Amino acid sequence: xxxxxxxxxxxxxxxxxxxxxxxxxxxxxxxxxxxxxxxxxxxxxxxxxxxxxxxxxxxxxxxxxxxxxxxxxxxxxxxxxxxxxxxxxxxxxxxxxxxxxxxxxxxxxxxxxxxxxxxxxxxxxxxxxxxxxxxxxxxxxxxxxxxxxxxxxxxxxxxxxxxxxxxxxxxxxxxxxxxxxxxxxxxxxxxxxxxxxxxxxxxxxxxxxxxxxxxxxxxxxxxxxxxxxxxxxxxxxxxxxxxxxxxxxxxxxxxxxxxxxxxxxxxxxxxxxxxxxxxxxxxxxxxxxxxxxxxxxxxxxxxxxxxxxxxxxxxxxxxxxxxxxxxxxxxxxxxxxxxxxxxxxxxxxxxxxxxxxxxxxxxxxxxxxxxxxxxxxxxxxxxxxxxxxxxxxxxxxxxxxxxxxxxxxxxxxxxxxxxxxxxxxxxxxxxxxxxxxxxxxxxxxxxxxxxxxxxxxxxxxxxxxxxxxxxxxxxxxxxxxxxxxxxxxxxxxxxxxxxxxxxxxxxxxxxxxxxxxxxxxxxxxxxxxxxxxxxxxxxxxxxxxxxxxxxxxxxxxxxxxxxxxxxxxxxxx
DNA sequence: GCCGTTTTCGGCCCGACTGTTTTCAGTCG
Length: 573
What we know:
Elements: H1 3-19, H2 24-39, H3 49-53, H4 60-72, H5 76-84, H6 89-93, H7 100-110, H8 115-123, H9 135-151, E1 155-156, H10 157-174, E2 179-183, H11 184-188, E3 192-193, E4 195-201, H12 207-212, E5 217-223, E6 227-232, E7 237-243, H13 248-256, H14 259-270, E8 274-277, E9 280-283, E10 289-291, H15 295-301, H16 317-322, E11 337-338, H17 352-361, E12 366-372, H18 384-400, E13 405-413, H19 424-427, E14 432-436, H20 445-457, E15 463-464, H21 482-492, E16 495-499, H22 509-517, E17 522-525, H23 537-546, H24 560-566, H25 568-571
Parallel strand pairs: 4-7, 11-12, 12-13, 13-14, 14-15, 15-16, 16-17
Antiparallel strand pairs: 1-3, 2-4, 5-6, 6-7, 8-9, 9-10
The structure holds one DNA strand.
């Protein structure tokens, strides 16, 4: 039982208690604990009750529940709650604009348990009959249902990757003579995945049976000799395909995709009198096998250097490979610092020093502490006075610590009219300023674009944080004209952020590539709210790689001195 | 449910916005 599984159970308990209108502080205790557990560095299933109780936010009761989950895989309290409400009710809670009170009301008065039932009830005008709900709310709910359906069956990259690596670990242990590799969108590092694809090469006759009896299989969707599909616990589908040794490379290529890349590649094969499929590259005239054992062999036979999986999206990679002009992609090891983090001074979970040490342990040479500004009241955002005092503490601690440099910064809100949330003379005294939108998300495109362009013109803004505001599988980006934003950033010398939070990954790969093409510098930041957050850097780097970024394109691959020299504020001096 | 005590209860974050209201409840960040 890994930490995330325990965290998920606590989070579900919190959701269910909310629907029951339980004591809000009890709910918060479960939610806090869920986050703490998800971020914890050691595996809590191996901890004793005393060790667990030493963790802030985990008391007697929660410690014993963690032990119970570690030993039995489940908590009785959680099961009891689920008996009072159907599990599907939790899907309703994830709809935009639908909270616990509404879910409780919908279930109690209309018996609504699923998104489909809610959709039907809205269409029939039954929802507006409930107290506090009207026709307009019905429309919003219909829209939320439609958005949900659009995302149904998709999963965030880390979820899919984690499920894939557990499955691979199991398969490799059980069938040692067979080679297993992840393919599909997980191998390409796409920000969301529809399913997990695994390729097996070898001759073990038990491979398929081994796959379908995996302990996390919820349901077998299909089972054959060369292809099987299962639905895993948690709703992720996994497909396994078995191919003979001589087709390994061709199958890897074929099943890694993407579709657009494969079509272009097959097209190229055809124009050379060749045919490409999952079994190999063949000559059309006599059917002779030209290549198939490795991917490199296949690309080579098509006159191309091997293309990294992340670039196989049909965005010009074949043309670049033909000229041997593929970028040398940035790696996690190139990253020297992190430029976006929060502490207990606003909505972070750990203090400055704890964050600094965790960043150092994660391999970073520098860290910018960038807490929120005053507009974010719920996060206890900083006004000018507190921001400067906080900056002083950051600098003091930086002097004291070995092996890491702290930069005193801020994540300053961009107000709805585009003004900065803090005065210029305050921003001028900080080392680095990120400007971000956290309010009035529903402005129209003209307003939102003007707002962000105005932020870019502020001479003390160095970086635009999570520039489109998307929350993957949950919230559409705000309506900002990214092209104009990139143009403005290029002219002003403002960097754009790739926020590595797994449900943001914002900029997206496609936008980051446009920014790079226009010469805009990129920073990759974890936006860590706790000491465990620095591990998320890898997901941001994954986006950067898919965006064709090299080490030179990314500001935080530089040393701290080079980085500071490259900031807009210092260049204009 | 956790925490920190002034040791065994009382405090724990809140402002803006929206759609529903006629004074506010629910949701979001």
